Amino acid sequence: MSDGPELVIAGAGISGLALAAGLAHAGTPLRVRLLDERPGLGSSGGAITLWPAALAALDRIGVGTEVRAAGHPVGAGTIRSRTGRTLRSLDPARTAAALGESPLAVRRGPLIELLHARIAPGRVAFDSAVHSYERIDGGVRVRTSHGTLDARALVGADGYRSQVARTLHPGLGERYAGYPAWRGLTRVPGLEAVQLWGARQEFGVVPLGDGLAYWFATVREPAEGAAVDELAHLAEAFRGWPEPVARVLAGTDPQAVGRNDVMDRQPLRRWHDGPVVVIGDAAHPMRPHLGQGGCQALVDAALLASLLADGSLEDAFAAFEARRRRTTRRVVVASRAAARAVEAPAAVHRLSALVPDAVLLRALGAISGRRD
Ligand SMILES: Cc1cc2nc3c(=O)[nH]c(=O)nc-3n(C[C@H](O)[C@H](O)[C@H](O)COP(=O)(O)OP(=O)(O)OC[C@H]3O[C@@H](n4cnc5c(N)ncnc54)[C@H](O)[C@@H]3O)c2cc1C
């Protein structure tokens, strides 16, 4: 193990790269190796909204300024019914004051590249899938698509299908949530951030600046039902919905549309076992409606990087789980509640509009606001 990596990170997505960037920023002298099953640096999903807690995490790993420069502040947040009726419109200044700053929309590609640029060259091995691991004297033996790799510790940052989580908890169950989520990028000038709810469907749009915006959609339908033409399928599912849905779909590059079946995975009894720990979606996958999965992954990465800079690997893993379990559980539960809100009948949507903005902002601040 003397010349090999001391710390293997499975997955070079948001959480894996942010952890490695955080370790580099802290000057931690660990030899780190990231393994990713993809052929190269990449990220599906177009763009992402980062809430202030995540921006604070990026500041802690030294990349907050660059990410803000690459992104676009999310202005007014409006929720409308499928008939176009405004259910809520959050004032941008009030939202920023309640959360500590404005949420930021950023393309996933530049975010991933900015994190990757903070890591020493050659640390990421692509085309390298992690299959499982076993504990050995002094560390862990990682089984990969290329054989085995011994290290002192392993971090599973390999997303909600995590093989590290599945080795930690064999037989981990998951269930289809009842709908896929689609995402895409569109070129339509003058859009504002909006979510439209109705008929157990949702369509959201978030501007990225310069006439570019990203959108997401959910529709109740069977799993694994990929359409030949996803855009035509969505145009049909959202026929008759208010503006800007039709324009957004018409302005979308068909090659840039992603579709994932949304799954509910059984919660993990524990996130760590001696020299192994899971972070991000591998530890706490959640429904996408609050836009929190990537944010919580960044908060995880920044905290674990700082704990690793201060103490032994195994103590850091135990402290990490103790510090993050409760908060992320709350976010998982809140994200599921948001899914139920989207799917509620129109009368419930109208009633939910009576909840004062201050109450909503307090709840959002508790899971996604800046704390420093
Ligand atoms: C429709 C939708 C909208 C969303 N919007 C937002 C949003 O606005 N804001 C937000 O914060 N979050 C959002 N999310 C959630 C966010 O995308 C995830 O929570 C986030 O990507 C999790 O990061 P991660 O690093 O834990 O996992 P991932 O991003 O999934 O990265 C995992 C990495 O591990 C690699 N990998 C997987 N398996 C293996 C293996 N066996 N061996 C080696 N490598 C492996 C993958 O190739 C990937 O690079 C959204 C999700 C959806 C579905």
Q: Can you characterise this structure?
A:
By secondary structure, the protein is α/β, with parallel strands linked by helices. The chain has a single domain (7-174, 264-368), classed as FAD/NAD(P)-binding domain (3-Layer(bba) Sandwich). 36% of the residues lie in helices and 27% in strands. The protein has 12 helices and 19 strands. The protein has helices spanning 14-26, 52-60, 64-70, 92-99, 108-117, 163-168, 230-237, 245-250, 293-310, 313-343, 346-352, 357-368; strands at residues 7-10, 32-35, 47-50, 72-73, 77-81, 86-90, 104-107, 124-125, 130-136, 139-144, 147-151, 153-156, 174-187, 194-198, 201-209, 212-219, 258-265, 272-273, 276-278. The strands form 4 sheets. A 7-stranded mixed sheet has the order 6-5-14-15-16-13-17, with helices on both faces. A 6-stranded mixed sheet has the order 8-2-1-12-19-18. A hairpin with a 2-residue loop joins strand 15 (201-209) and strand 16 (212-219). The mean pLDDT is 94. The structure holds flavin-adenine dinucleotide (FAD). Residues 10-16, 35-38, 45, 48-49, 129-130, 157-159, 161, 163, 181, 183, 216, 260, 280-282, 288, 291-295, 297 line the site of flavin-adenine dinucleotide. Flavin-adenine dinucleotide is lined by residues 10-16, 35-38, 45, 48-49, 129-130, 157-159, 161, 163, 181, 183, 216, 260, 280-282, 288, 291-295, 297.
